[in-house]
Amino acid sequence: MSASTFYPIGTPGQPWGAKEVDQWRARQSRQRRYDEQVLPRIEALADRFDLINYGELDYNGERFPLYALHNGPRDESLPHALITGGVHGYETSGVMGALDFLENHATDYSGKVNLLVAPCVSPWAFERINRWNYNAQDPNRSFFENSGVAEANALMKLVSSQPAPFLLHIDLHETTDSDESEFRPALSARDGTEYEPDIIPDGFYLVDDSENPQPEFQQAIIAAVEKVTHIAPSDDQGKIIGTPAVSRGIIEYPSAKYAMCASVSGARFTTTTEVYPDSPKATPKQCNAAQVAAVCAALDYALQNS
């Protein structure tokens, strides 16, 4: 790690211990309120959806109830779809896009699909505008048995309790300038590895599962989203965020190998959205709308091709 990217916690080349995690935690301050900005909107939906309390986080006395909504009662003759937001709490449009979809579009799919929506998987990080949870863990690399990450464990338990396999899972994320200014340098410092700078793409892109690629599905989402916001171009090496683009605005990761949230359901159709909220060409409203457009396009394609 060069001097220009030195992270102010720990010793370069040495992984963090408990002392460094405590130092990191002391730097995190509440910047917004889950109980004011998210919970009231979830609770207001209880008259139209089944409200599921699937767990509670307790971080040093701070308690965060975890909620999902289902457009029940379940009809086992219909396919099942999972929508998740806020796995990385700082990625605001993932949370707000999931809520916007529930408030304005979810009823359009009544009688077509069983919807399960978890709008804010990581509320402590939502409040701190951070990627990690209270223990400096990344929930989106922790969806495996006995990971020890409370946010991931609670969601996995919820998903495994559902009575039928999922056709679709769309996980709503953002790629922000702070990924390079804060979160990737912090990751290198925490793990004692060398930080390698990258370029944040200007625009929306998708992450498909390289172990179960669904290119037509991804392309259908891109076609819908580009009506709302611009699609990220590949760089001069044909890459997006350091990974080769397999199509316009689409890259692939092995979701299960990386223990990403998109792997949790085992669905046929899966994707991770990546909105770019720091673009001068996009507003917060557009970012939320891009997430909604992605969800609707994903559902429409999956239902037509199931």
From TrEMBL:
Family annotation (SUPFAM superfamilies): Zn-dependent exopeptidases
Matches recorded under Pfam families: AstE_AspA_cat
Domain Peptidase M14: 30-306
Gene Ontology MF terms in the entry: hydrolase activity, acting on ester bonds; metallocarboxypeptidase activity; zinc ion binding
Keyword line: Hydrolase, Metal-binding, Zinc
Claim: Isomerase is one of the keywords in the record: no
Membrane spanning stretches: none
Entry cofactors: Zn(2+)
CDD domains: M14_REP34-like (cd06231)
GO biological process, one term: proteolysis
InterPro entries: AstE_AspA_cat, Peptidase_M14
Family (UniProt): Belongs to the peptidase M14 family.
Protein name as it appears in the record: Peptidase
Species this protein is from: Altericroceibacterium endophyticum
